[in-house]
Specification:
The complex is a heterodimer of chains A (about 525) and B (about 400). With about 525 residues, chain A is of the alpha+beta class. Chain A has 3 domains: about 160 residues, FAD/NAD(P)-binding domain, CATH 3.50.50.60; about 150 residues, D-Amino Acid Oxidase, Chain A, domain 2; about 150 residues, no CATH class. Chain A has 18 helices and 22 strands. In chain A, the strands form 4 sheets. In chain A, strands 5, 6, 7, 13, 14, 15, 16, 17 and 18 form a 9-stranded mixed beta sheet that branches. Chain B is of the alpha/beta class and about 400 residues long. In chain B, helix 15 links the parallel strand 3 and strand 4. Chain B is globular and about 60 Å long. The chains are: A alpha+beta (about 525), B alpha/beta (about 400). The interface between A and B is medium-sized, with 27 and 29 residues.
Chain lengths: ~525, ~400
């Protein structure tokens, strides 16, 4: 079968989703193809930090300016994905105060509010901060939920006519003379081979864009840099904590939803490892050692899991750490660069600038397609962020508090579409994160969910401290009931979900985390008799 | 509140949910989300934002049976109570103040005890209390005594001082205003063991009704007064502090540091329950109790109060009762009777309280006992109101059997 669109976007990260939305809002028919689920690459594997840009102010002025502009835009258009926590840059005795003056000056030059505050005041604002600090600067950092952000972009894109196909892997770019005219793809779930044609194909594949470019016969040299992070069991801090020094390893602690995250490390990895990242013991040690300098209580806080992502940096020099590479946005028009029409690569940048990356890309698309439409994504609010939380909360007053607030945090005004009318729909699937049966069903019906991991990204099922112990089997049951899969597949999905959870726990498997995972295994293996049937 | 490390005590929860299985409220009242969700799960959400606080936590009766059941040492009950203290926006009303201020109510009522007791038993008064204030009309009030225990004790100070060994007695409001006889029985038993009984320099209500009715600052002030007096008794005079009420004793020992931020680590181990103190004194082998020669057969059913279960000391009361000649003892399954202090008095809690207690009431009736014994005064009110049996404190049964 062959399908037609104006633009094909390859990659369902924040950038791809942003491009799809921007296209749709400008009346361009977009088709997004994603080989797995949305936000599975770098988009979903970072701090979830709503950068103020302060981190880059001294070293990369351009990035800093982009960050603060986008920061302010996201607060407005994506309020349900953003937590306005503010951030503190702490100077510890070992850092000295020298950097601070330079830092404040650079921030202000980039348009970032930066106020030096008394360490005592900083400690009052954020009691978890290291009391040994000798200086603190307050900046407008925040937290952003990348899954929610990506989904909201896709929901809006679809509402404006875009089509989104997850689990569709591009196998070939169709080239006719000096022009890319479409792609061949395989539906990973059914095995069906499909062909799609469009005027323009956009490579928004992140680190995998390297291979996509190669498929088109052009070279985009990427530098995969692995970054590992630790997730703590609960919110340790309510304000983002940074170190006031040159950017280094493990110097950002971000409160995100119910947890806190410390990261990251940075190391070069070969391309054949980017699909399967493991966090090493050394990385865990480093993250903990540096993390406790920001917030000493991390030393005795339960660690939920560890994970790693790959930064899709465009190699501009051969710096081995990958840090001095500019995080600047790279839009490559392969027509002018390589003489190949109909193919655009959008890369570099960062989660913070996904919208701007999309804007530049779609500006280029418009130019190519001779469309004269202005970008409106900086003004149009994303679905979920169109109403004040308090208002929605009032309308949903009959739903139990924690369940109501959680659903509104996750879905904004879309929470009103959840069917939680009766006791059965209000019963909880995930007790740690207060996900109701109604919310799971909403996700299954409307948010492109095909398995438990997808469901986790939409609802936080399995993201709490129990890591699937109580919720995974309930959710699998609902999915089987809803006809998403048969009971055999449900079991397989359950096994793979639990294994995926274990992968994140393994590097930090001690104390209560180990105890709980042992209990989970005892429940599923010992009581329920769940076995991995494939391996038997 | 709590130490830095134990602040995150909820992290030890591995979601086994056995606390919810043992929660007396969760099994009868679907409006209560259960200890796991209200406690460790909820705490994690409340750390994210205080807006996650749910007023349904008021259904928790603070029995601490969740903590007894927990295999991970999570202080679930404390977490729930601390959350109520920190986040509840419901201001205590007239009813809460009436129920909580036991000292004030007691000192007002005891001089006019016969009139007060008569009037609160009248139907029109009950209807008014129910409709206007919200105290359930089906509830029977404990009778006030005519004259307090403290005034009785004051007259005996000199005589008590003659004993070589001394203890301070934390009598509690119930003994002082409602049942001085229990206090007198305690003095009788202690004297029989060669121990003199002193009063604390200052004794205020332990604070448990204040805590559960949201009057935290007052509870803390009273707790500080009590702890200072206890410290004086324990540290200066070397007299341990002994109580007859399991809940008062538990509060002085554990609720003070856990909920009121009162550091009592230096004296906590010297705050004792009467039956445990006596049992251990007898176990030393230097003294003996002499019982009446002719003892009639008495079938006693022992009820383990919730805070007794939490203290883990029911054993001492049970073994003391077994020592009494003629007593045929049945130990009832340890279950909450539902009243939980002032909880069961409130109109909205009445159905929950009675549904919780139903099982234990049936077992009491079926046991064929003559009398129920328990270390908690509010269990006594509940069981006497809800069954046909009288309830007597183990110390009173002991005193009665003495020669």
């Amino acid at each position: 079968m062959t399908k037609q669109a104006d633009v094909i976007i390859i990659g369902g990260g924040a950038t791809g989703a942003g491009v799809a939305r921007d296209c749709a809002l400008r009346g361009i028919k977009a088709l997004l193809l994603e080989r797995g689920d949305i936000a599975t690459g770098a988009t979903g594997r970072n701090h979830g930090l709503l950068h103020s840009g302060a981190r880059y102010a001294v070293t990369d002025r351009e990035s800093a300016e982009e960050c603060i502009k986008e920061n302010m835009i996201l607060r407005r258009i994506a309020s349900h994905c953003v937590e306005e926590t503010d951030g503190l840059f702490l100077s510890l005795p070992e850092d000295g105060l020298e950097f601070q003056a330079k830092f404040i000056e650079a921030c202000r030059a980039a348009g970032i509010r930066a106020d030096a505050i008394d360490p005592k005041e900083a400690l009052r604002l954020e009691p978890s901060a290291n009391p040994a600090m000798i200086g603190a600067v307050r900046v407008p950092d925040g937290a952003v939920d990348p899954f929610r952000l990506t989904m909201a972009n896709l929901i809006d894109a679809k509402a404006h006519g875009a089509e989104v196909l997850t689990y569709h892997k591009v196998t070939e770019l169709i080239r006719e003379q000096d022009r890319i005219v479409g792609v061949k793809a395989v539906d990973c779930r059914s095995g069906e081979k499909k062909e799609f044609r469009a005027e323009i194909v956009v490579n928004a594949g992140g680190i995998w864009g390297h291979d996509l470019a190669a498929m088109a016969g052009v070279t985009v040299k990427m530098l995969p840099a692995k970054g590992s992070l630790l997730i703590f069991g609960h919110r340790v801090n309510n304000i983002v904590l940074n170190r006031c020094r040159k950017p280094a390893d493990a110097d950002i602690l971000v409160p995100g939803d119910t947890i806190s995250l410390i990261g990251t490390t940075s190391s070069k990895v070969p391309f054949d490892e980017v699909d399967n990242m493991y966090v090493t013991a050394d990385e865990v040690d480093l993250l903990l050692r540096e993390g406790t300098k920001l917030a000493p209580s991390l030393a005795h806080t339960r660690i939920l899991r560890a994970y790693a992502g790959v930064r899709p940096l465009v190699a501009s020099d051969d710096d081995p750490s990958g840090r001095s590479v500019s995080r600047g946005i790279v839009v490559l028009d392969h027509a002018t660069r390589d003489g190949l029409e109909g193919f655009i690569t959008i890369t570099g940048g960062k989660l913070m600038t996904y919208r701007l990356m999309a804007e530049w890309t779609v500006d280029l698309i418009c130019k190519k397609l001779n469309i004269n439409k202005k970008c409106t994504t900086a003004e149009c609010k994303l679905p979920g962020s169109r109403e004040k939380e308090e208002k929605i909360s009032k309308r949903l007053h009959s739903v139990p508090v924690a369940q109501r607030e959680s659903a509104i945090n996750r879905h904004g005004e879309m929470a009103e579409r959840l069917d939680v009318g009766d006791a059965a729909a209000r019963s909880l699937v995930c007790e740690c994160e207060e996900v109701s049966v109604g919310e799971v069903k909403y996700a299954l019906n409307e948010l492109d969910v095909h398995n438990l991991v997808d469901l986790r990204r939409r609802t936080r099922v399995g993201m709490g401290t129990c890591q699937g112990e109580l919720c995974a089997c309930r959710a699998a049951g609902i999915m089987a009931e809803a006809g998403k899969y048969c009971s055999h597949q449900a079991k397989q999905d359950l096994v793979s979900f639990l294994n995926e959870r274990w992968k994140g726990m393994a590097p930090v498997a001690w104390g209560d985390t180990l105890r709980e995972s042992e209990f989970t295994m005892w429940l599923y293996d010992g009581v329920c008799g769940l076995k991995n049937e494939k391996t038997e | 509140m709590m130490t830095e490390q134990s602040n995150f005590n909820f992290e030890q929860c591995i979601k086994c949910t056995v606390c919810t299985v043992y929660c007396p409220v969760a099994s009868v009242n679907p409006l209560f989300p259960g200890p796991k969700q209200a406690g460790p799960d909820g705490e994690r959400l409340r750390l994210k934002h205080k807006g996650f606080y749910d007023e349904s936590l008021k259904w928790c009766l603070n029995c601490k049976r969740c903590e007894v059941a927990c295999p991970s040492n999570v202080r679930i009950g404390d977490i729930i109570q601390a959350a109520r203290i920190k986040h509840s926006t419901k201001k205590p009303g007239l009813r809460e103040k009436m129920l909580a201020n036991t000292d004030f109510m007691g000192s007002m009522a005891t001089p006019f005890a016969p009139i007060v007791n008569f009037s609160v038993g009248l139907k029109p008064v009950k209807v008014v209390l129910d409709k206007v204030i919200g105290i359930d009309h089906r509830r029977t009030f404990p009778k006030y005594s005519f004259g307090t225990f403290e005034s009785w004790m004051k007259r005996r100070r000199k005589k008590q001082a003659k004993y070589a060994r001394q203890v301070s007695y934390f009598h509690g409001c119930y003994v002082n205003y409602n049942n001085p006889q229990l206090g007198k029985d305690f003095v009788k038993v202690m004297n029989a063991l060669g121990v003199g009984v002193q009063m604390l320099e200052k004794e205020k209500c332990c604070g448990v009704p204040l805590i559960s009715n949201g009057l935290i600052d007052k509870a803390r002030r009273q707790g500080e007064v009590n702890t200072a007096s206890i410290r004086k008794s324990v540290v200066e005079n070397k007299w341990p502090v002994v109580g007859t009420s399991s809940t008062c004793t538990f509060t002085l020992r554990d609720e003070y540091p856990h909920l009121l931020d009162i550091d009592n680590a230096d004296v906590r181990d010297h705050i004792e329950l009467a039956t445990r103190y006596i049992y251990r004194l007898l176990a030393e082998g230097n003294v003996q109790l002499r019982f009446k020669k002719k003892a009639p057969v008495r079938r006693v059913a022992y009820h383990t109060a919730c805070h007794m279960e939490k203290l883990g000391w029911a054993y001492y009361s049970i073994e003391l009762l077994r020592m009494i000649p003629g007593v045929e003892l049945t130990v009832l399954d340890s279950q909450c009777c539902g009243i939980a202090g002032t909880y069961g008095f409130k109109k909205e809690n009445y159905p929950t309280a009675q549904a919780i207690g139903e099982g234990i009431f049936r077992k009491i009736e079926a046991s064929g006992c003559d009398v129920v014994s328990t270390d908690c005064e509010t269990c006594k009110w509940q069981i006497e109101m809800s069954t046909s049996k009288p309830v007597v404190h183990p110390i009173s049964l002991l005193a009665e059997a003495l020669e």
